[in-house]
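We emphasize that the prediction below concerns an isolated chain of 410 residues; any contacts that depend on oligomerization or on bound cofactors are therefore not represented. The input was used exactly as deposited, without trimming of termini.
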Amino acid sequence: MEKYLSTNETAEKWGVSERRVGQYCSEGRIPGAQRVGKAWAVPYDAEKPADPRRERKDKSSAVSEEIHGGEPKAELPGIDQGCLMPLMNTAFRPGSALPAVNAMKEGAQRDIAMAEYHYFSGQPEKAAMEAEAYLDSEGMGSRLSAYLIYTYANLSLGRIQKAREGLDAINAFLSAAGKQSPELRTAAAFIASAGAVLLHLPLPDELPDTKELMVLLPAGLRAFALYVQAHYLYLKGEYARSAGMVEAALAMGAEAYPIPAIYLHLVAIMDHMSLKQTEEAERHLLSAWELARPDDLIEGFGEHHGLLGGMLEAVIKPGWPEDFKRMIEITYRFSSGWRRVHNPITGNDVADDLTTTEFAVAMLASRGWTNQEIAEQLNVSANTVKKHLLGAMRKLQVENRRGLKKYMLK
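Result of the prediction step, given as a token string:
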């Protein structure tokens, strides 16, 4: 009969913290480790995993070797700018996303754009398959785009190891491109920052100055980069500044690019709900939905559900119940993968066993909303709110609203 150690015993054996052992287990890096309630049982003869920082350094060196060909300043691979998230960078009329894709140049540009369409319309299986074909592309624009799509599609599919590998590769590209051409550095920085912010991970240290990044990006990608910056400000609690950035971006033409505009509107909802400005939040939600619905660009709504403060329940569910149901399906799928990447890296235990309604109620409660305010927002009774809130507290084993903050999204 195989002998097991507790995480505490394993931590003492390996000379690391108990939390680190838990991270190793959650990441699947200890063969044979088994979940026992909220703890882990580690095989007695299990070996301590290698330092992930060393693994990332090795990957970065391998990517650098590939980019430079082993020479100090080898000729760089081509930056096929037209293949850097081409659909995101396209101004199309709502309802014409697929015609816009089909009008693109046959080959990498059209294929990457189709992978984008499938991802943003909630079809991660197709997106992952299409992106995977370009992970070894000679053009860095198509390759970086493929890695971003591949990472998030696999995260939504629960293929966490592949998602982590994709994220590591993106960061390795950024490290390798640090002293190279401005075009390569900008492309890598854009993809790396986009990959980090939605996972609520720290932005890479190698990112160039924001002004340097913005000036070299085309208009559509610049609009999405502003979403990334606004989301980052939101995570820092600078809600008014984030909302102002969104309004400025939309006023200066970002609305013409549906995918970036949808994401800008979504972060504005997050800002206004944090400021208890529900009318403004609803305005942005309806604007995002007007852009998204004709092309079924529904993924972003499911990705951001936990941060939208019950807005989907209050506005989308009554008017578009079938679309709301799909959004919630995306939420469960995406959030499961999100937590399995985010929690071990950050050490934060964002809740993983609440219903979407319990999470929305708990999120608002943790931010100081009263039961009556939450009830008015969700169009339910205060007793219903109390029921969901007590259910969330019971599952998370906390006794008051203050205790919820540990498990809520920042």
